[in-house]
Amino acid sequence: MSALCRQSPEAAARLELVLAGRRTADQQRMLARLLGTPVNVVEHNYLAHDVVLDLMRSADVLCALLTDAPGAERVLPGKIFEYMACRRPILAIAPPGDLWQVLEGYPAVHRYEPSDVGGITAFLTRRLRERDSSATEPPVVWNDPRYNRREQARTLAGLLSDITGSGPGPH
Fold this sequence. Notes:
The protein has helices at about 1-5, 10-15, 25-30, 50-60, 80-85, 100-105, 115-135, 150-165; strands at about 15-20, 40-45, 60-65, 90-95, 110. It is α/β, with parallel strands linked by helices and about 170 residues long. The chain folds into 2 domains: about 1-140, Glycogen Phosphorylase B (Rossmann fold, 3-Layer(aba) Sandwich); about 140-170. Strands 3-4-5 form a 3-stranded parallel sheet, with helices on both faces. It has a two-stranded parallel ribbon with strand order 1-2. It is elongated. The N and C termini lie far apart (about 60 Å).
């Protein structure tokens, strides 16, 4: 964010960063660095799930953020599936790994490594410019059967049948 504030303060002034949920002391300190910048930061503590989903659906872009610490490439935040179900563009700032793999094929994903400050800044600047020049973006058209509950239940049932040696139907 500091790069965006330096390079394009007018774009940063149009950026609203909405956070919901628990934050660690380190995360809170990082957010405090945004005080005094043009970025509008809205912080919510814990919110009811339906309220969070409404926030997600109203977002221009949803952000999944992981550090580049060792092992982070194996982290898969559970909220990423809700992000995809909300059918909004996703900005994934994370090391290549499990999160990048799950998002493969999602038509509105923008993936950057945490060290790619220039790429992230350019993306945010571009998105803010696009938002100013057009109406609200329609929901993402996406239907990957890997994340469909019925398809997952069918797959699980097949695996259980294979394991138990039973075929479909009552026994």
